[in-house]
Amino acid sequence: MENLLSYLIVGACAGLLSGLLGVGGGVVIVPALAIIFQNLAMPQAIVLHMAIGTSLATIVITSLSAIYAHYRRGTIQWWTARQLAPWLVAGSLIGAVIATYLQSNTLKWILGIFILLVAVQLALHVQPKPHRQLPGRAGMGLVGAGIGILSALFGIGGGAITVPFLLWRNVPMRQATAISVVCGLAIALAGAAGFMLAGEEAAQLTAPFARWSSGFVYWPAFAGIAATSVFMAPVGAWLAHVLPVRWLEIVFAVVLAVTALKMFAL
Q: Which pLDDT value is given to residue 5?
């Protein structure tokens, strides 16, 4: 019951911050799950892999909810999303395979550095200036594959990478966010599937967790996080119109910086 409460709290925080600041829930979920799993005495060699795989699985649920919201507002540029989606799927599968071959310590530093970069971006409110139009099919393929690989390695839906790229390519903010949400679903589905399949070889390491796991996805954590994140994201979006978001960005940047330091200490 205590662990279930932890998962519910993590999901609520991830959903709230995602709706409030537009920061993907994976940035919160992965380090939080890594700490929880470590306290559960999960084998150290798979703690981060299990946290990333589970995070990607939860993003499938939150992405579906967000896609519906953007669809109702008519802000999704489906043709752009369709150009990126196949390559995002391929990149996410590749990223999941790469992650399984990385040592836990290497993965820890990759994640910690990424979280620090997100913290800096929030603190400084860095936004790329529109530069040029979207690239051709080959260019979109390369970008999509790259975003997919990195997102699977970080356990995120890719919004922290996809949105800046689209803004840089003259896509308006609302459309960029909506496209990123659709792309996040493709990344999460492929990435979670990749971590489930790749993690099957590590089944002997997950006992006694194997009963509740599919590869590197731990279902009790998935259920708790998904249950609250879906409902809290709309609350965060509402609070964004009420609270001073700039100050919240700075506070959250500090929290992320501390989180990154904790990741390095795992």
A: 92
